[in-house]
Structures are given as C-alpha cells and as structure tokens.
Predict the 3D structure of the following.
Amino acid sequence: MKAYEFSCRAFQKIMRAAQNLWPWGEPKLLRGPGSAGGLSAFIKSLGLRRVLLVTDPGLMQLGLPRPLIRGLEKAGLFCAVYDKTAANPTTDNVEEARWLYREAQCDCIVAFGGGSPMDCAKMAGLLSAYPRKKAHRMKGVQPVRLRKAPPLFAVPTTAGSGSEATIAAVVSDPVTHAKRTVLSPRLRPKYAVLDPALTLGLPPRFTAQTGMDALTHAVEAYLSQGHTKKTDARALEAVRLIFDNLQAAHADGRDTAARDAMLYAAFCAGSAFTRAYVGYAHAISHVLGGMYDIQHGLACAVALPHVLAAYGEAARPRLADLYDAAGLSSPEQSVTEKAGAFIHTLRILNTSLGLPARFTCIREDDIPEIAARALKESNPLYPVPRIWRQAEFEGVVREMRKEVA
C-alpha cells in the first residue's frame, strides 16, 4: 500500500508542477440580472458573426433559450441550434454538435444550460480544431499546446456544475455507459454569463441537486492536497455562500438575491476545483451516473458525507475549517468535533432539501465494478486526503445502500 500511495503522490506532485506552466486565465464575467440580454451585442462587438448554440431538449421545450436566439438574430448574427444534449452528454452528442459547427461555418459557441450542454459545447469546440480526432478516443489530460479552440460563451441556467469556470468536460460512452473526463486549459470558456433571471424557474429538486453539486466541488477542492491560496479562498467563499443561500433558493425559487449568490458560489467552486481537482465523492458519483443514470448532483449529495467520514483523521483539520466557513461553529468546539459536525450537517442539509440518504438502486453484484471504475478514474490523478484502494471504495458504496442513523 505504501508503494502504491507513493506512486500516486509522486504523479500528483509532477502534475502540480506542470500546472504552474499552464495558462490559467479565468473567464471574463458578465454578471447580474439581465446580463444574458446583453450577450448578443457583446458577441457582435467582438467581430463574431455565426453562433452555434448548444442546449438540451428540456430547456428548448420550456422555451428558455428563445429570447437569446431572438436577440442573436435581431443583432444580425446567424444562430445554429444543437438541442439534443443528453442529461449525461455522450460522445455522439459531441460529434453531432461538432458536425453542425463545421457545416454552419460557425465562429463561436454559446453553451446554454447546465453542466451537460456546457460539457458538450466544450468538447465540440475543442474537436472542431481537430477534424481527425474522435470524441470517443479523448480522455484524461490533453496537451496544453493545442490549436486554438473557438470562443466559448457559457450561460449557466443552474447553479451547480461550475462548468463555466473549469478546464474539464465529462462525456459518456453510449455503449459502455462509462464516463470519460477530459482536462485541458483549452476547454475553459472565455466568458461566463451569470444571470440569476435564467434560474428563477428552476424547480426545487433541481435547485437542491445542483446546489449540492456546487458544495461538493468546493469541499473536495478545499480538501485536495493540490490546493493553492486562491483555490482555498474560492472554495471557502463558495461554502459560505451556499450555506447562506441554498435553502432560501430552494424554498423560494423567485428569490433573485439567493439565486445570484448561488450562481456566483457555483462559479467560485468551479474555479477552485478546476485547479485543485475533486475527490472520491465525484469519482463514485460519475460511475453511478453512468451505470444507473442518477443525476450527478444527487449522486454527489448522497456520496459526500460517506466519503468524508471514510477519509478519517486525514481530513479533519480542513473539515473543521469548512464548518467555520459555513458559520456554524462555536469557539469551544475542537477540530475533531467541528469535522464530525460538518459531516452531520451535510446529512441534515440533504434531508432539509428533500434528498435521499441512500440509493436502493445500487445492486450488490455491481459494487466491485463501481469501485473499480471509481478507482480507475481517480487514482493517481485526484490529490485526495487519503489514497484508497478497491476495498475502501467498495465499503463506502455499500454504506450508500444503508439507512443513515
């Protein structure tokens, strides 16, 4: 075990050193109520003329992208629409969007929606610069010195994935249902539009799930051994904002101030984890999403307290910091007490948001495969507080099938 852990930590140190040379420019922010309405004029001012808008069927059915499409056309811009993105975007979605970008001779991409359209748009943009590459063969860390991808404008309609701030994209293989994570600075959007008006109609259950996704990003980024001062600051700010605003946004979907705070929290969390990486809660959640089609934020919400508890002593000091950031601690509490209280608070938060404590859909026979896939995704890449092997993953997934006391 020591040799295995040493090899993982050595890889992580090499990656951290290499990342110091990466172009880490953050997306330019267009923020506030109505900011999406000014996007058309902004795009035109950059000299761009032909837009590929990537969204999903649900949003199109609700009509949410329609005002943006009309605004683009009114500004004299051509707009091709790809609206077939699946809840867990597939490599087929990416190839279809890339084909449309090329056929319509577009010069920029607008991703409109949650993490799924954004991941699809990111990959389509990246692959548009490489006609011979195929989506199903892309995975892991991609070279930094890539051809320039088209400008990407990210317009989130949920406050969860933080994909508008990240260098990552996650797509599924439609045959095996395995998820592939692709990392490259070229995947990071150039612009992020944080307009709370677009999230006012989000149903409570999606508000809860996406909010817990953002919280998981922030928590895992803060616990990461690859953290920096900047990622720490962003992660702690995200945790503070989420504990102050998630329940308010869940209770009253028209609370513009809470929605605005949650959008910025998701952006901060995304900015933190794209540099510091995520952890085992995400690895397990990705597998559960691929195998059982569980919504990602929901999987994260259920997995997070189990994973944090299993990290044990290695995570306690930083979990105590997170409890402080949430504004829930008292001076007389010890580090161990704060860490335990933070994990317990996550379980209470899930319950208050109407989220389950377990997944009855997980089959016992699947657990070794779930563990193997999660281990393969996360080791040696994720700089978690404590390195696990197969047995630890299996134990946590089994716990996720039980009632929480």
Remarks:
- The mean pLDDT is 93.
- Residues 190 and 295 are 27 Å apart (CA to CA).
- The chain is about 50% helix and 10% strand.
- The longest helix spans residues 229-251.
